[in-house]
Specification:
By secondary structure, the chain is mainly alpha-helical. It has one domain. The longest helix has 14 residues.
């Protein structure tokens, strides 16, 4: 049992959908993230996708952000922080005081 309520297959499908929605992501990055998903490295794939969305300043609409945040919760990935949210706490920190 993985402990994630979504199930790994659904998570992988949602990651692929999020990857497809990241319009403007270079093909080499998309291919690398796709390979991580195929290899079952879902957390690393999500971290990489969010980092590249931030680095390439790719626009993320509300539903897409919600999907990424739900994936982050399922995989224990700090999505808001990786997307550059100034109020999000970095990993292993409690947030603004």
């Amino acid at each position: 049992m993985t402990g994630d309520p979504m199930g790994r297959g659904l998570i992988a499908d949602q990651l692929r959908s999020s990857l497809a929605a990241a319009v403007g992501l270079p093909a080499t990055d998309a291919d690398s993230i796709g390979m991580l998903i195929d290899a079952g490295e879902l957390g690393i794939a999500l971290e990489t996708l969010c980092t590249q969305i931030y680095e390439y300043d790719i626009e993320v609409d509300g539903p897409q952000r919600s999907r990424l945040e739900a994936l982050g919760m399922a995989l224990s990935v700090p999505v808001a922080y990786l997307l550059g949210d100034p109020w999000a706490a970095p990993p292993d920190q409690k947030g603004p005081r």
